[in-house]
Design goal:
Length: 256
């Protein structure tokens, strides 16, 4: 009788272990990195779930045994971790990130520098460019203005009691054209930033032919929600938005 009870206890314990391992639970964790530990991308490739770390490198993400979790950031080497029963039991994981190092072949060009700043400056024969201060004339020291923005400013300003320049440019449609050009430039800048930060993660879980990826990102920028969303600097919302647009893009391709 005692042996039967002992066997039942063992079976019950094993059942609990296997049952717990098959369940999806929320695990906590902490990323340890050489410098910035916030906004590191964490994606459960198996469950298609995504999150980011806070300022302390802490995060939470749903997972179960054998799920593959990817840790990625521009400045660090990507790292994958397979969830083990021990991780599920403790509900915690610690991950160490290492700096991404791009090794280049050693090349020596021109003069060899010593490491002494003043000596190297003289040895390099580098000359400072002449600026407007050297010539004693006023100059602009603020943030550089894009050419399209300068053109729009010129098209919408003018002197006199009745400034003709803005009126003529409005009638001819030049003002509207310049505003549209500035809007396109803003979208292109936001799109390039999104490609740099999210394309690797996005296509890691949602495959798309390389030849269609540029077309997809232009499809994303055409959505009126894209530009305002890019200004929020909310990685989670942007990533969910990109996944939603990718699903729509694939449906459109299938229809075509």
């Amino acid at each position: 009788m005692k042996r039967i009870k002992a066997n039942l206890v063992v079976i019950f314990c094993l059942f609990q272990v296997f049952y717990g391992a098959s369940q999806t639970i929320e695990i906590s964790g902490r990323v340890i990195a050489p410098s910035d530990m916030d906004r590191i991308h964490i994606i459960n490739k198996t469950k298609n779930r995504f999150t980011i770390t806070n300022d302390e490198g802490e995060f939470r993400i749903p997972a179960q045994v054998n799920d593959t979790i990817l840790f990625s950031a521009i400045q660090y080497e990507p790292k994958e971790v397979v969830v083990t029963p021990e991780i599920i039991q403790t509900k915690f994981i610690t991950v160490n990130m290492s700096d991404k190092i791009n090794e280049l072949d050693e090349v020596v060009v021109g003069r060899i520098l010593t490491g002494d700043l003043m000596s190297d400056i003289e040895n390099s024969q580098v000359k400072r460019q002449i600026n407007f201060y050297d010539l004693g004339i006023p100059g602009y020291t603020g943030k550089p203005i894009a050419q399209s923005q300068r053109r729009l400013h010129e098209a919408t300003t003018g002197g006199g009691i009745v400034p003709l320049n803005p009126i003529l440019n409005w009638i001819s449609g030049r003002t509207k054209e310049l505003k549209g050009q500035i809007e396109r430039e803003k979208k292109d800048m936001a799109m390039n930033k999104v490609i740099s930060e999210f394309s690797d993660l996005l296509f890691e879980i949602e495959d798309l032919e390389a030849s269609k990826r540029t077309q997809y990102f232009y499809f994303v920028t055409d959505d009126p929600e894209f530009l305002p969303l890019s200004h929020l600097q909310n990685d989670l919302r942007m990533f969910e938005f990109l996944k939603q647009k990718l699903a729509q893009f694939k449906e459109r391709i299938e229809e075509d």
